[in-house]
Amino acid sequence: MSLTLHYHPLSSYCWKVLIPLYENGTPFMPHLVDLRDEKERAEFNALWRIGKFPVLQDGARDWMVPESSIIIEYLDQHFPGKTRFIPSDPDLARQTRMRDRFFDLHIQDHMQKIVGDRLRPAGQKDALGVEQARAKMKTALEMVDQAMESNPWAMGDTFTMADCAAAPALWYANAVTPFGDSYKNASAYLARLSARPSFVRVLKEAEPYFAMFPKG
Ligand SMILES: N[C@@H](CCC(=O)N[C@@H](CS)C(=O)NCC(=O)O)C(=O)O
Predict the structure, then answer these.
(1) Which of 52, 104, 108, 114 is the pocket-test mutation for ligand 1 (most atoms within 8 Å of CB)?
(2) How far does residue 192's CA lie from ligand 1's centre (Å)?
(3) Residue 54, SS3?
(4) Which of 28, 67, 105, 162 could form a Cys-Cys staple with 154, CB 3.0–4.6 A?
(5) How far is residue 111 from each of residues 36, 41, 88, 139, 174, measured CA to CA in Å?
(6) Which domains, and CATH codes, for the chain?
(7) In what order do the strands lie in the sheet with 63-66?
(8) Whole-model pTM above 0.90?
(9) What are the tens digits of pLDDT across the range 43-67?
């Protein structure tokens, strides 16, 4: 087995790459990194100085692959399975990457800002930043709700990398501010994602760690 995934089961961006790994039953060695542990953090930083997971290591090719979208591209290229994550048509591929970026940058990153603020010490909170993040996330959720009116998946009938990005982004956005009443289509999409066996498995494995999630 050549692949090692450095990850944490509660991390939203790690969920994004666990989904494609489980979709295709790609063999890999999970390496859980506890960033609260100084030694583990130092070892992980030695691998990737940015210090953010997921990071995939491919021992066979001697590649170290950070960044969730790039990891999915790498898996699609070198470990193709029954589910392909990037369409072969260049226009569809570009649209898929755009939608992947949309879920990361316009939902997931704002959600991280909101959750991250809960971990800040009293007196060092960023109320304005959180308010702005909430407003931007709301706009993006409205756009998802409109886009998902008739499609099962982000790119239409086919499950792609964009859906791998959507699953953690929408799941955690909904945990932060439940949107079932306001955005019916986005909510139905999240329900479809949550029923997908690869994501069911990710959520099940995260369950023992949910107590670590900072409450609002
Ligand atoms: N753009 C990166 C974002 C990765 C990221 O934000 N990871 C978070 C966990 S979800 C992390 O490692 N946070 C730890 C830290 O910032 O110290 C990706 O797509 O992989």
Answers:
(1) 52
(2) 25
(3) coil
(4) 162
(5) 21, 23, 31, 13, 9
(6) 3-78 (3.40.30.10), 90-196 (1.20.1050.10)
(7) 29-32, 3-7, 55-58, 63-66
(8) yes
(9) 999 999 999 999 999 999 999 999 9
